[in-house]
Amino acid sequence: MATNMRGLTQFIADIRGARVRELEEKRINKEMANIRKKFKDGNLDGYQKKKYVAKIIFTYILGYKVDVGHMEAVNLISSSKYSEKQIGYLAVTLLMHENSDFLRLVVNSIRKDLDSNNEVDNCLALHAIANVGGSEMAEALVEDVHRLLISPTSQPFVKKKAALTLLRLYRKHPDVIPAAEWALRIISIMDDPNLGVVVCVTSLVMALAQDHPDAFAVCYTKAVDRMHRLVIEHEYTAAYAYYKVPSPWLQVKLLRLLQYYPPSEDPAIQSVLHKVLETIMNNSGEPTRNIQHNNAQHAVLFEAISLAIHLDTRSTLVSKSAGLLARFISSKETNVRYLGLDSMAHLAARAESLEPIKRHQKTIIFSLRDKDISVRRRALDLLYSMCDVDNSDVIVGELLRYLKVADYALREEMVLKIAILTEKYASSYKWYVDTILQLISTAGDHVGDEVWYRVIQIVTNTEDLQSYAAKVVFEHLKAPSTHESLVKVGGYILGEYGHLIANEEGYSPVDQFQLLHMKSQFCMAPTRSLLLSTYIKWVNVFPEIKPQLVTIFERYRHVLDSELQQRACEFYALAQRPEDDELLQNVCEEMPPFPPRVSALLGRLNKKISATEDKRTWVHGGREVNLDRDAVAKKEKETSAQLQQDVQDVMGSLAGLDLTSPHAKREGPEEGKPVLTVGPAIERWFEKLTYTAEGVLYEDVQIQIGVKSRFQGHVGQLAIYIGNKVSAPLTSFTTTVHVSDPTALSVTFAKIPPSTISPKTQVQQLLHIECKKMFSTPPVLNVSFLAGSMQSIAIRLPIVISKFLEPVSLGGQDFFERWKLIGGAPREAQQVFPIDLAAGGLLDLQKNRTVVSGHHFQVLDEIDPNKNNIVGAAVLHTAEEGKVGCLLRLEPNRDAKLCRLTIRSTSEDAAKELQALVSKPLKAGALT
């Protein structure tokens, strides 16, 4: 570009030719003065503006402050020439920060470029939005960026930039994107034939799905389907094969996306995912000589192993993964060793059995001495996660030995982990005290207050340990150099429990005092304050050394430190009181046991794990820690939902007030709950299918959905026939089923639905159904597809409780005996409703029989004396609650134009639900 502007070329050459900074500044000041003069005079053409703004940009890049050229840059953006527009956008992104007032002047120009049919203009505008990304610009232009992303006329490279721009805006200003509202449309682009677009959109979905998991739940099926097409069906172009590995970047993102959701319970998805992961692991044979191929393959493999661990730690895939990881942690390549240890730590944090990992304990311990610190850190994490009662002595001992030579960057974290493991897996309290005191002696400055606080708590609360702890800490204090933390522990323990060992040889009160006081001269003021508290305790229990202690109090009364001085004065006054004085005895009583509390060490360790954009699905520390963490997260989520409900209740009580704001956050549909498509025909179709086995469920000008079902006992199958009525394909086709109570009803697809329906064709999807217990809400079928624009349909499936009835034949005597045995309320549900008579004033008995038998009741003839009445019997099958008897009586009254429906069942809920189902189509006009 500079070759086309001779002035800019000469300016750059002059700057480079300046031998000292003073000459460079002189040349720049001269040029800036000339530019100001030219801008002030005006009448500059586009070329001149471009040249001068380019000089300003170069000056800014050199690190000089510039205060000129902003308006000219704004004007260049509106130019129709690419070279001028490019310089204008470059100046805006470099010279203006996100809160600059000049940005308000360029919003309309940027929107105009977003609306342009020129893809280059689109891209320049997207670059500017992504680089500046201010809140005002985001609110004003996010709709236009989204429109470019979803537009069928946008070029692939424009879609890629639009997806990444939305990702940038969401990371900075998440409130400006209505994630739930745009979810289906964004997810549909994961079916785009261009894998480059899919990579970018998947990055966007990964960010949105972590914060809105329910709204983006459909992406799970899309990710599995795309992985199947890449890995199994090899559906990709040669351009996206990186050293024979199909689009490894996309595979890694999809595998990681699947880890943000709990494992799917759909057998079809489980089967496909298992096949994909198995294929990836089988393809990871011995490393080749091609480093790029190995890197791509390893990237996909390690993410696949993480997903296999996330799905089921007991699966054969995880067992196979453990074998692969054992090979990787012994690799000659540093990166491979690092990734192998990291994945094995993930396995140790989730696995129910650590035996496969313990087989390689020596190799892992050897990794602590690796030449690369990142590998050493991963080895530390793995040893921390794999430690249990059986190997705690070995691992803690090895960590203590390594602590003496460990990097300073690792020592603080090592101290915390050693302290936690020692407390968690202590085989005896004596071993705990020995290990922790050795840790404090070795680690020195890297021991936080939480470590020695915890030692004090445990010793205070364990009476059998107090005498032993006093002896051990006394021996440690004999060392020539003792860290201040150890002096604190010694001061506290000897002050509280030194009298327990005072009668033994070598531990006399004088020995304790001389040893501890000798260390005090090397300690800071807070430690000396603690030692003064130790001395006043000794005044009460060791009268033979009282004169020496009083002398110390006397000396400290005149120090400059206010804390030391105050303590010394108060303790001196206490020490002067008579020995039999109750005040001194009460003040110097032993500390009571500490109340039970969670170890502060865990909180300190968790704080060291910095928050990242990627929501962690596991933490180091073993399976129990992760289970506890999941339980806490679940409880917090429930509490948050309850608080949100309370807020909604409060807002509902303020219905008369206008609390809206021009900048209020836009709300989309409630996440996770589908909004049903409504219409009189839809309701009639659904009601008819509740008592028939096949028919139309939904139809419009584009699509027709029909169903055919069969049920036996507590299981059934429902075939859904989806027909494309238009002459264009329906792309990004997605079908999901929402079940309000999965514990009562299970509905799963037999295989992953297709993503495209060709013109004038029909596809079939098979659902497997199981009734576990009573339910009242039918599942909802969600269908979305692209046909010019995003279409979304949510309709109820005709899966109701009466589908699981089995007709039963009974004689008259048996029927009425059971009828009386069940009795009335609450196991009886009854409803009286008006009826329309057929032509001639006759009852349409055939329609009544059709409805009753359609709901799987056996119509019992010649049971009721009144021939107009209908009597039925059936047994309800559920997997968990077993069989439930159900009896029915339908009594129409032609003269009164009323009909009474009575259902009795051994289950109160079944009686109510069946009464509601059967009565609805029997009411007037329902069968027309």
Automatic annotation (TrEMBL):
<keyword id="KW-0254">Endocytosis</keyword>
<dbReference type="InterPro" id="IPR002553">
    <property type="entry name" value="Clathrin/coatomer_adapt-like_N"/>
</dbReference>
<dbReference type="InterPro" id="IPR008152">
    <property type="entry name" value="Clathrin_a/b/g-adaptin_app_Ig"/>
</dbReference>
<feature type="binding site">
    <location>
        <begin position="51"/>
        <end position="55"/>
    </location>
    <ligand>
        <name>a 1,2-diacyl-sn-glycero-3-phospho-(1D-myo-inositol-3,4,5-trisphosphate)</name>
    </ligand>
</feature>
<keyword id="KW-0472">Membrane</keyword>
<dbReference type="GO" id="GO:0006886">
    <property type="term" value="P:intracellular protein transport"/>
</dbReference>
<dbReference type="InterPro" id="IPR017104">
    <property type="entry name" value="AP2_complex_asu"/>
</dbReference>
<dbReference type="InterPro" id="IPR016024">
    <property type="entry name" value="ARM-type_fold"/>
</dbReference>
<feature type="domain" description="Clathrin adaptor alpha/beta/gamma-adaptin appendage Ig-like subdomain">
    <location>
        <begin position="687"/>
        <end position="798"/>
    </location>
</feature>
<dbReference type="InterPro" id="IPR012295">
    <property type="entry name" value="TBP_dom_sf"/>
</dbReference>
<dbReference type="InterPro" id="IPR050840">
    <property type="entry name" value="Adaptor_Complx_Large_Subunit"/>
</dbReference>
<dbReference type="InterPro" id="IPR009028">
    <property type="entry name" value="Coatomer/calthrin_app_sub_C"/>
</dbReference>
<dbReference type="Pfam" id="PF02296">
    <property type="entry name" value="Alpha_adaptin_C"/>
</dbReference>
<protein>
    <recommendedName>
        <fullName>AP-2 complex subunit alpha</fullName>
    </recommendedName>
</protein>
<comment type="function">
    <text>Adaptins are components of the adaptor complexes which link clathrin to receptors in coated vesicles. Clathrin-associated protein complexes are believed to interact with the cytoplasmic tails of membrane proteins, leading to their selection and concentration.</text>
</comment>
<dbReference type="InterPro" id="IPR011989">
    <property type="entry name" value="ARM-like"/>
</dbReference>
<keyword id="KW-0653">Protein transport</keyword>
<dbReference type="InterPro" id="IPR013041">
    <property type="entry name" value="Clathrin_app_Ig-like_sf"/>
</dbReference>
<dbReference type="GO" id="GO:0072583">
    <property type="term" value="P:clathrin-dependent endocytosis"/>
</dbReference>
<comment type="similarity">
    <text>Belongs to the adaptor complexes large subunit family.</text>
</comment>
<dbReference type="Pfam" id="PF02883">
    <property type="entry name" value="Alpha_adaptinC2"/>
</dbReference>
<dbReference type="GO" id="GO:0035615">
    <property type="term" value="F:clathrin adaptor activity"/>
</dbReference>
<dbReference type="InterPro" id="IPR003164">
    <property type="entry name" value="Clathrin_a-adaptin_app_sub_C"/>
</dbReference>
<feature type="binding site">
    <location>
        <position position="38"/>
    </location>
    <ligand>
        <name>a 1,2-diacyl-sn-glycero-3-phospho-(1D-myo-inositol-3,4,5-trisphosphate)</name>
    </ligand>
</feature>
<dbReference type="Pfam" id="PF01602">
    <property type="entry name" value="Adaptin_N"/>
</dbReference>
<dbReference type="GO" id="GO:0030122">
    <property type="term" value="C:AP-2 adaptor complex"/>
</dbReference>
<feature type="binding site">
    <location>
        <begin position="6"/>
        <end position="7"/>
    </location>
    <ligand>
        <name>a 1,2-diacyl-sn-glycero-3-phospho-(1D-myo-inositol-3,4,5-trisphosphate)</name>
    </ligand>
</feature>
<keyword id="KW-0813">Transport</keyword>
<feature type="binding site">
    <location>
        <position position="47"/>
    </location>
    <ligand>
        <name>a 1,2-diacyl-sn-glycero-3-phospho-(1D-myo-inositol-3,4,5-trisphosphate)</name>
    </ligand>
</feature>
<keyword id="KW-0168">Coated pit</keyword>
